[in-house]
Amino acid sequence: MIPACDNLGVNFPSTRRSAVFATGSADAGQRRQAFEVLVEAYWRPVYKYIRLKWGASGDEAQDLTQGFFTRAIEKSFFAGYEPAKGSFRTFLRACLEGFVANERKSAQRIKRGGGTEVLSLDFESAEGELRQHEPPAGLSMEDYFRQEWVRSLFGLAVESLREECAARGKQAHFGLFERYDLDEAEATYEELAREFGLSVSDVTNYLAFARREFRRIVLDKLRETTGDDQEFRSEARLLLGVDPG
User: Fold this and answer.
1) Domain of 165, in residue numbers
2) Is the separation of the CB atoms in 8 and 212 below 8 Å?
3) Residue 81: DSSP 8-state
4) Distance from C-alpha of 233 to C-alpha of 87, rounded to nearest angstrom
């Protein structure tokens, strides 16, 4: 469950730069960092999409996922993206469709370990998610791709929140957030207070803190992985129910 944003002072980030356009930077280090951000956010949706839309085996989907992002880095696939024509997610999916079609047609897929750079991706966990979260009946593949992108984005935000809370000595804050909001525990604040050795007031404040930080992280990652301000704000309204006005 993703907590509601009401009365928690959500502010839209203004300084985080879109990684989409940083992939075209003249600075090689910036380009590499930007691609790392996009690969992290999109590789799971890409892998699952290939498995389901194209009926690929696990091994073939791994090869194609690796090949797609490696080729995107080498050939600057995303340089042709124009925000006025649609979302970056839709553009990336169109690039993927063309890539897979060409690879299937030529039967010259990039092989893992074949001299091409191999990205470090946890395909085993993605397979587990595929088994656990089957696409709802009637869901289009376009909507499925978006659904899995959202799942990936939130998953990255949760891990970032875990790391930030640990670094700041606020493990209890994350523990409560995980227990009450992510696991959807059927427990009262009084029960959580006893479980964590806190006052009810502390439970309320800790959860409010964790929720604010989670939304901040989600918005930061959303800013990085969308093409422009319009797309960012539109996605924020859909994901978190926040209208920036």
Assistant:
1) 141-245
2) yes
3) -
4) 12
Q: Please write the tens of the pLDDT for every residue from 89-107.
A: 999 999 999 999 999 888 6
134, 155, 180 - which closes a domain? 134
Residue 193: is its pLDDT beyond 50?
yes
pLDDT digit string, tens, across residues 59-87: 999 999 999 999 998 888 888 899 989 99
Identify whether the C-beta of residue 110 lies closer than 8 Å to the C-beta of residue 68.
no
- How distant, in Å, are the alpha carbons of 63, 85, 117, 154 from that of 88? 23, 9, 25, 18
- How many domains is the chain built from? 2
Last residue of a domain, one of 81, 116, 134: 134
27 and 108 fall within a common domain = yes
CB atoms within 10 A of CB 181: 17
pTM of the model: 0.84
